[in-house]
Amino acid sequence: xxxxxxxxxxxxxxxxxxxxxxxxxxxxxxxxxxxxxxxxxxxxxxxxxxxxxxxxxxxxxxxxxxxxxxxxxxxxxxxxxxxxxxxxxxxxxxxxxxxxxxxxxxxxxxxxxxxxxxxxxxxxxxxxxxxxxxxxxxxxxxxxxxxxxxxxxxxxxxxxxxxxxxxxxxxxxxxxxxxxxxxxxxxxxxxxxxxxxxxxxxxxxxxxxxxxxxxxxxxxxxxxxxxxxxxxxxxxxxxxxxxxxxxxxxxxxxxxxxxxxxxxxxxxxxxxxxxxxxxxxxxxxxxxxxxxxxxxxxxxxxxxxxxxxxxxxxxxxxxxxxxxxxxxxxxxxxxxxxxxxxxxxxxxxxxxxxxxxxxxxxxxxxxxxxxxxxxxxxxxxxxxxxxxxxxxxxxxxxxxxxxxxxxxx
Length: 409
Description:
23 strands, 27% helix
């Protein structure tokens, strides 16, 4: 497929084939990974059509990290957006923002402790917090550490580097749920904020609908996004102080946020330490509650050696996006969802603006047809994510964190 072809002149199948060439997967290639890629090409095809319409280079690109998976958010999934990677649609300065990506400014605070706290005491403190009113910048904090994959966990530290770390470490994983609607400003989610939806341009493409902001509206949203990232960071620190008292702040990193006008990290750590939102070169990777978590030292990636080994180099040179891949700077923040019964995506059926994914199951000659991934039984992956991260040289392990307890209250 000629990447320089006028996108709007291409047929449906050609658009999808072209979009697929802009997906660069470092995932495990399991069922969830394959579903992500099968859906992501629809999102990229929409992005490409809209980019060209507004005079931008139609080269939106998805680069996945080893935890490549699907988004269980129905709106994001139906918009053709994958998860566990970085989505790019420009040089960072093009004033166009695609709102269907829905940044929620989620992140993980990593705190250090000298002794492991009593679980009963932690439960009491959490109950007190939930029964009180805590504010930051005059915004009432909404407890969201029992929602979806958000949690509070405590670990025993196994130090694997020369960096001084305390004997116990906790994670607090949460987002800026308070700012998704328009109660405190513009809002982050176009499907929850009427103010944001009224500001957006609704673009209908042959593959579905996208909401965008351009020019001054894009600038206003980016500024609100910055406010939300800082709010989310401060919220985790306030909660940590209330629960654990004195602790050492090792890092407090976002992993689902809009970095600039044209880059969003969707469930991946950003290892670009020059980014204003990254406050440390230490990054957490949380797997399942029953196995170890890890702390990584990040790296500038991807290297040219990596690009060659992944068979990306020739393709990115032909597409003219080498700089985008070389500045991927990502690292898994978690394990990602997996579907243990799904082996492969055989094809995608389209009917009345809906996509039906025909999936081959592990049992031979059995199929499952999926429209809404939220209703599928899922698990979290394990250490394969860490092994793949090391294999790709995306970062270095500095500590293994052995689980003591995990709370969802």
